Amino acid sequence: MPLEKCGVTLAAEIARVDPAPVILGYSMGGRLALHALLAEPNIWQGAIIISAHPGLSDEAARRERREKDAAWSALALKAEWSDFLAQWQDQTVLAGVEMPDRFTLKDRRASIARSFIDWSLGAQENLIPQLSEITTPVLWITGEQDHKFTSLAEQAVPNLPHGKHITLKECGHRVPWEKPDEFTQLVRAFLETT
Question: Among 28, 113, 141, 194, which is 20 to 30 Å from 188 by CA?
Answer without folding.
Answer: 28
